[in-house]
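User: Hey, quick favor. My workstation is busy. Could you predict this chain's structure for me?
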Amino acid sequence: MTAPTFTPLTPYATLLGFTRYVDRTGPTKASFVGGLRRQRASRSGFNPHGQFVKALKADIAFHTGGTHLAQVVDVVKPRWRPLYQALVPGATAWLHSLGEPAGVDLAQTRDALAMLGDLPVKINPHFGVRYADGRAEAVRLHFDEAPPSEEAVLATLHLTARHMDAVLPHAEPVLVDVRRGTTHRMPEGAKPDEIERWLAGEAAAFRAIWSAA
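Assistant: No problem, here it is.
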């Protein structure tokens, strides 16, 4: 009987995985990539934020100003209730910061695949918003207890902007820190060429660690 052959998993990252990787230093980078590789090999992983995002999108789409967010805490499984209770106040504050609910609509975004050298990175905003004056934003949500680092913000916004023609044409990328209800935009004076070189180096190291795992 011929032994089965196994092809190594191709290096790959989601936007969340890659930005969490660039946030790390030293040996923690290698252990983090190893964890991503094992997770992909076992096809494991669960997103606890699914119902939360759905409620937030419903409040934007139906101009309800936070009604769905307030209700989702009571319908989510008990194990996730403390998480949702921690997220709702900041998300509601962000929702109110958008202005009158009737002046904001939900916009459909599409995923895109960014290539950083030989590393594919999936660009996947959570949703888009469109304002009455025609402006649009592609929104990525940050759920972690700690605020996003400068590196995570730069990587997220640069890669999303790089593929905005596919994601949501003519929109601005934003990263919303859900727990604090704050919006991060690309800082003035950011130099795309320098960011691109930095991310290319990070991607090359990510790929090397993945292949060696």
